[in-house]
Amino acid sequence: MIQVAYLIPIFPLVGFLILSLLNKRLSKGVAGIIACGALLASFCIALGIFMNMDGKAVEVPLMDWIKAAGFTANFSFLIDPLSSIFLLIITGVGFLIHVYSVGYMHDDENHNIFFSYLNLFVFFMLMLVMGSSYILMFVGWEGVGLCSYLLIGFWFKNKSYNDAAKKAFIMNRIGDLGFLIGMILIFKTFGSTDYKTVFSAVNGFNSSSGVITAITLLLFIGAMGKSAQIPLYTWLPDAMAGPTPVSALIHAATMVTAGIYMVARSGLLYALSPVSMTVVAITGLITALFAATIALTQNDIKKVLAYSTVSQLGYMFLGLGVGAFSASVFHVMTHAFFKALLFLGAGSVIHGLSGEQDIRKMGGLKKSMPVTYMTFLLATLAIAGVPPFSGFFSKDEILGAAYAASPVYWVIGVITAMMTAFYMFRLLFLVFFGEFRGDHSIHAHESPKVMTVPLMVLAFLSTVGGFLGIPKSLGGNNAIEKFLEPVFQKAQSQPSLAGGSEAPEIVLMVITVLLAAVSIWYAYKKYVQEKEVPAAEGTKLPALQNTLYHKYYVDEIYSAVITKPLDKVSGFLESIIESKFIDNIVNKIGTAVEWVGGWLRQLQTGNVDFYIFAMVVGIVLMLFFKMM
Amino acid sequence: MAQDYLQRYLFLILGFFGVLSALMVVFTKNPVHSVLYLVLTFFAIAGEYILLNAQFIAIVNIIVYAGAIMVLFLFVIMLLNLNKETEPHKNPYLKFAAVITGGLLLIVLVGSLKMADTTAVATPFQGYKGVIKNLADVLFTQFLLPFEISSILFLAAMVGAVMLGKKDIK
Amino acid sequence: MQEIVKGIPLNWFIILSGILFSIGVMGVLFRRNAIIIFMSIELMLNAVNLLLVAFSAKWGDASGQVFVFFTMAVAAAEIAVGLAILVVMYRNTKSTDIDVLNKLKG
What we know:
With 170 residues, chain B is mainly α.
């Protein structure tokens, strides 16, 4: 089965080609079937690979790609437990989102192009996780950045959406610069960017080697851009300008987890450098806290979820930073389930309310959209970390590992978890409970089956997905950690990551659950019993709340400190250097060519005499030089 | 012994006449005189051919060149009624340049061909038998295809000449 | 004096042929009358024929003479067509001066 692994990215690629080339000629139904069918096929193959996965890393070579002097890169795929889990997530959740989009984008005029972009995105994401070398990962990395741009700016007639798309792409590129330099350093140090070569040569370096630290920090800059960590996170909330399925697929389940995948894949390198691990952990932690505080005050349903994503990504990086690689991957999986569900549910609400996104104008949708409410509730319970839902297991594993590294990490993590529970339930209560506060001419209706069935599937997964990783302290055998063991074993055996003790784990868990319950109760009290509604647009807020509401004014700071000065420099270069120097030179070259042409024109005298003379002179010269 | 030198003397005399006639071809003002001098040159060269034991070529040279081609030239000159007065004149500077160029060409040609070895020319004047037979053997076996194609060439040339020379029938 | 070489040295033929060829070239460059130019071209062709036959006699290979044969044939055909063109030119411009045809002046 592994040998047909190359088919997995081929299906979405073929889907993209068909849909983009035959755009206008396909009906919407056929286009939907092609797109979903491609993903279903890929999912089946990924499932087959997963079932037969026995822990070994298999390389599936395809073709020679680059063969330059001193640098070779092969186009080959690496299938091991880590990539097979990611494959399942991408194709499985991707398939559900495709089915959902058939309903959500039904009335859109560019329906077929949307699906072609979605398929292209899945193709690049698969390349990213299946590549067997850093450079192949980079191809996928850039590709998903491109597709993100295309999909965020999908409704291109609106200028602010285009700006959001550009912002996402540019911030990604800033991160990519770090990735690229890191990759170059890898090549310089190890002679190749293949995983096999790099990871087997790692034994030659001891920890606190400067080169490895530099490499890992640079790679992490790339992850910062792609996975929206501080300081490159402001694109993610703005990316909510795209259609909701896009937000679900790209900005919840797959693209933003590319950074996690990259760090997890490079686990050996990171384990060798305690400095980078600390940087990763602290960045993740601060981002988690920061984003959670902003999410407390947002009023757009999608923005709350966006900041929640940033915060959860911070958790994942925290997990990576303290050495709990499999816990992070586990959280990626559960997060994909419940965050995609949350976004799709939000999309269902928006669809049902004909485009309304402000939660101040919602409420009481429990009765009119029961399926959406039920699934949204399950997802919210999962993200808040309530047992026995999936989020509880994954989050607690990360927090447990954080405690083992340093109790401070754990404390901040728990505070963030409390805030997470609070703002998610705030969202739930404001949208679904109480009285409908919006425009009464809008009749909220439940979404069609093609949209609710994926919701139900994802809800099921969010509920039972946690059972894959029941930790030992609760009596389980932590299947997922065992599954990923061959990949992370070497990394976790590095001396700098000595494991913590297990005894207090149950205590930690109980504390976390209790605190989460307190937050939920507080949210319930505030928004259901006291029926408090967030202030309408324009009212003056207390200073702290105002800062949070305006996202700490980070966007404005970036604009003033970075964007505007760059604009000025740009303008200067254009007016002075571009028009005076470069244009001038080009024009002068044109004039020179004309002048030479005019001079050469005089050779064509039209005189047969002269031509014969020139011929003879030519022959003489030729013979002369031959004689030499 | 003198017989060995006989060939060389003959060569020198014929060569001298040939060069002289050639110079007169170029420098005479009257076109008819040019044609006549050219015929003389052809005779000289035919003599050279005989020295090289290529009698067939010598005779063919005279028949084809001096007999047919020069007659054609004379016909055209008569047709166009060219004589000494209607001859166009050329810029003296260009004339000078032409002479220099010609001289240079000569030097370069001789210089580049000088690397041929200087032993005697083989089999000069060694009896008559076999020359035409040898030639025919080679011509009609090895070079049969070019031979046939040259007949097509003549056909094309004839058709071309007739087409070009025809006057438009009003 | 036993090494008095019989026959004519090849060099002499080369020189003679070269002289005739150069005179032909000079004739082409020197004169403006198209007919004289044609005749100079004939002269050049003959010079080459002479050289070919000389080498053919040296190597004892009859191919050289066959080649001369064909050269003459082609020269005849070329003269026919060339003179026809000349006549057309005369009809159109009433002159055989080659400088008259300068409409391709750039």
